[in-house]
Amino acid sequence: MSIYNKLASKSILQAGEVALIGAGPGDAELLTIKALRLIEQAEVVIYDRLVSSEIMHLFSDSCRKIYVGKALHKDCISQDKINDTIVEWAHKGKKVVRLKGGDSFIFGRGSEEVNYLLAHNIASHVVPGITAASGATTYAGIPLTHRNVAHSCSFITGHFSHDGKLDLPWQNYADKTQTLVFYMGVKTVATISEQLINHGRESSTPVAIIHKGTQIQQKVWRTTLANLPSLVAENNIKPPSLLVIGDVVNVLNEHQQLQDNTQQAFFAPDDALLPTIVNTRATG
Predict the structure, then answer these.
(1) Is 95 one of the catalytic residues?
(2) I need a labelling partner for 24 at 20 to 30 A (CA). Which of 69, 97, 127, 249 fits?
(3) pLDDT tens figures, 49-92
(4) What are the DSSP E strand ranges found in 18-145?
(5) Of the listed 27, 48, 94, 212, which one is catalytic?
């Protein structure tokens, strides 16, 4: 019997209930056991753009899959329509999974959806997921905090508001011992770089961009705050990408150059054995 089967399940999805599940940053092995058990019971899944295909393959062939992906600044299904779609399938007596990338309570509007379900007398299971700021940075070898380097971390939404502005309390981000993580910030790197430098961050502050963190397509770029906009432009970096700003970016960098563009969260000394070790880990 597997360890998975030895653990008694407390996750029973009844007809007409909804499980709001954080799918994490993409690697299916980062799902919680609770999430996996609810996924196995799903009759309908309503999922977002940032949910990886690897995770979607875990649903049964008989499960109805409804895509409600939302892309920034593009025509997409409104949040109101998504809310109504979840309620509609729950009222039909289906076992519904609402699947969102990362953690649904961190820039995921999950709390809005739970409030809407409760207002319509629908019971909800909420399952946390590993948010990109944690999963993607760890896989890239970047600790969000590190002794004598960073003692706090801020998660910040980096996309323009409807009026085309990025109004943030920039003065709060001047402390170099604070790691900054920007979600949805690739389109606004010029503003982010300018404002942080204007409010006290050194232009030489290390920055990492992690594209599709934890997934097989993961790619990591490292630069400085001053050179951030040109890096994004020269490499045509697109979402989903996470910006990490602070001295923690280079804590492990000198020892893990070969790790930057692999999704494996595996680190070994930079010596003659490293290629063999990495290849063994990746295929084992």
Answers:
(1) no
(2) 249
(3) 999 999 999 999 999 999 998 655 455 689 999 999 999 999 99
(4) 18-22, 44-47, 64-67, 96-100, 124-127
(5) 48
Judge whether 16 and 93 are in contact, CB under 8 Å. yes
- The domain locations on the chain are 15-130, 133-268
Residue in 70, 175, 176, 260 annotated catalytic = 70
For the chain, give percent helix, strand, coil, nearest 5.
35, 20, 45
* Residue pair 101/25 in contact by the 8 Å Cβ criterion: yes
Question: Does the annotation count 187 as an active-site position?
Answer: no
Distance (Å, rounded) from C-alpha 57 to C-alpha 39? 10
Measure the CA–CA gap between 162 and 73, rounded to whole angstroms. Answer: 9
| The 241-245 sheet, strands edge to edge | 152-157, 178-183, 241-245, 206-211, 219-224
pTM above 0.85, yes or no: yes
CATH fold label, 15-130? Cobalt-precorrin-4 Transmethylase; domain 1 (3.40.1010)
State yes or no: cis peptide before 269, omega within 30 of 0. Answer: no
Q: For domain 133-268, which architecture applies?
A: 2-Layer Sandwich (3.30)
